Amino acid sequence: MSQTIRVATRKGLITVVRGGEGWHIDRTDFLAQPVSMVLADRRDNTLYCALRLGHFGPKLHRSEDRGKNWQEIAVPAFAAARTAADTRTTADAAATDKDQKAPSVDMIWSLEAGGVDESGVLWAGTIPGALFRSADKGDSWQLVTALWDLPARAEWFGGGYDQPGIHSICVDPRNSNRLVLAISCGGVWYSEDAGASWSHRTQGMRAAYMPPERAYEPNIQDPHRMVACAAQPEALWVQHHNGMFRSTDRGLNWQEIENVQPSTFGFAVAVHPNEPDTAWFVPAVKDECRVPVNQQLVVTRTRDGGRSFESLRTGLPQSECYDLIYRHGLDVDAAGQCLVMGSTTGNLWISENQGDSWQLAAGHLPPIYAVRFS
Amino acid sequence: MPQIRFTANLQRHLEVPELIVTGDTVAEAFQQVFLGNPRLRSYLLDDQGSVRQHVAVFVDAKLIADRTHLSDAVKPDSEIYVVQALSGG
Predict the structure, then answer these.
(1) Contacts of B30 in chain A (CB under 8 A)
(2) Is the sign of the CA dihedral A105, A108, A110, A116 positive or negative?
(3) CATH numeric code, B3-84
(4) Option in A54, A72, A93 nearest B66 (CB)
(5) pLDDT by residue (tens digit) across A243-275?
(6) Do B55 and A55 count as a contact with CB atoms less than 8 A apart?
(7) Residue ranges of the domains in chain B?
(8) Would you say the C-alpha torsion A369, A305, A223, A234 has a positive or negative sign?
(9) CA dist A98 → A348, A365, B50 (Å)
């Protein structure tokens, strides 16, 4: 069972550990700073912490000693589309402003390790919707131009944020060149050549929020979160803006899972690392009412590939509950036994029995953006 | 020569002492500062070299007009003041 959980919050990176007397907060790093994502790289135990400073932009820090010391490293960035401001003259300034819409990274929304065979490789998904690759543990980053230059990108739009963003990056453990991305809102994209070329994979997905004649278009799908089974990476699960979807062929075809009680709306999904048919979701009412159904928080679990679901509620608040589990707010450990769930209301629950029962590990935390076992 | 000062809120992230600089524009003044403190650049400017949305730059107590090219004039006795905008939270 994993003993350490990293919790990325609005006001710092909180580390929760399991000691002799149960789970407790061990410490907080980057106190009062917004942490948009955290990655514990299991290949070499390096920790990465992405900040989204309200005034001073996105930042990235790395720790080689499990969080005792941190070093600020390079942050993914777009190349300047014009001469840098610090070399401009007044005459230049008058020339043109046509490039004012050139991109700038607003937030690191996803951060994943490359394969076990590519030491030091990291992938970062950003808002706006770009993918960056590092080959040196974040000392430098390169924009994946084949994705950024896709003509289809013009159809992407913001979902939850003003600009589209990449929140899910699945690297195939069997073949590091195979990548699957999920974008809000830009659908699902697949590469089998480490990002050199891309194809969309949304067949079967449906967008209920669009005019009916456009409902099945690839670029306007809003997968809120996508996860892949580690042992069987062709098995993908998606919590979509208007439903739940599953694929057993790396996203070539998606099956919508309907009639799940209490709701098919939500943000988070987790899949068992060894059992592709076992997955967990955390439902809410609907997009314009983002609270648990009947204000009773439940986790839904399937063990049969989505044919049936159980509602798990032991230990979770069953009245007057406003907690929403955001897209990165649910994780399962490498054994598939322990789950952690953090809410926008600042509650952190842990289950040590696959969701059968939950315990509140910490309450009144800042809004929780992401939780990860490490 | 122009003097440049930074909000104390930056000091928690990196060291930014008050500096005397040269230059006729904010861009030239910033360029000098960044030479000695390259990390500071990404804290004040976005990927395209524009002043970040929630950073405010004053020259002699007046907000600069050109946040894209930083072409606002700086006099030899000017004071440049870099602060966080309250809009950024």
Answers:
(1) 85-86
(2) positive
(3) 3.10.20.30
(4) A93
(5) 999 999 999 999 999 999 999 999 999 999 999
(6) yes
(7) 3-84
(8) positive
(9) 47, 44, 13
